[in-house]
Amino acid sequence: MLEKEIENILVKYHEIFWPNHGLxxxxxxxxxxxxxxxxxxxxxxxxxxxxxxxxGTLLRSSIDQTLDYYGKLQMLVPDSRLDMCVVANVIPxxxxxxxxxxxxxxxxxPQSRIVEIAxxxxxxxxxxDDVMAKISEMKIKPKEPKxxxxxxxxxxxxxxxxxxxxxxxxxxxxxxxxxxxxRILPMSKEEFPDYSIHDLQICYFLNDLIANEGRFxxxxxxxxxxxxxxxxxxxxxxxxxxxALLNSVAKFETPEEDIYCGxxxxxxxxxxxxxxxxxxxxxxxxxxxxxxxxxxxRITFDRMDAMFELLKENTYTENEFDEIFDNYETExxxxxxxxKNAA
Length: 343
Fold this sequence. Notes:
Layout: H1 3-12, H2 14-17, E1 24-32, E2 35-42, E3 48-57, H3 61-76, E4 82-90, H4 93-101, E5 105-108, H5 111-120, H6 129-140, E6 158-160, E7 163-165, E8 168-172, E9 175-186, H7 197-211, E10 215-219, E11 229-236, E12 239-256, E13 260-266, E14 272-277, H8 279-285, E15 297-299, H9 304-313, H10 318-327
Parallel strand pairs: 3-4, 4-5, 9-11
Antiparallel strand pairs: 1-2, 2-3, 6-7, 8-9, 9-15, 10-13, 11-12, 12-13, 12-14
């Protein structure tokens, strides 16, 4: 998605993001002293609002530029009330803290939210060619995962020259990965309020998670992992809805936003969605899973072939994927902060 497209949505539907402010656009792409500002509004109290738009994650390098812009504007209009707001798809907590301490409002609006509004009002919106190429390659015509050799039992890894060897190998999109374990990761309805399964697959897995470079924050404990990648099956609303390889788990010394204790780092090149798989169908391949719950469950390696065959059987056809991607309708009306962990 282009920054220009985000700007256009903010201009045309600003009442959604700043309700009851009575904003009126004064200028889009305003240039003052060789500095370009994205949007200039005036509110019902004749105060000015400058909005800076950043696509993707707001980087630390943006802090100095934003503060410089804000200071210059305050000097130019010392007798007028002037507020500044930075809009980005993802705003890390430390950057938000720095800017808000200096009086700059931060609005985190996930790409999924922009797409939702664009589709609701039939506005044109695009996704970058490279991301669409990944989606085309990975989601519509995925390579069949294979086991390179007979998997070892689901025990601790084998010590080889002081290092832990992967217990099994899988091939995804023609790349071989060593994995330590297979886990089911429950996704909370509290984190994704009012999401349908298709909302989660399209808005989060194929948009926000990729835009956030695979970073998925968690509250509470989070799962631990072995010395190698973990193959994750995502469970949501009583179904398995997506999969990806987990590269690492980071625990925060201080909780972010007083909620998040850490973050999973997923390999975005391995994110895969498919037809939702209910418990009965899942048990045909993995009979030892008695129920889907809030517990992070393990799957033994001797079930790997059956599990991957099940994922293959439930892969979307090209027509099915296109229909979902083009015509899905998100259910929530106005919730700018969903999903909560997208940062």
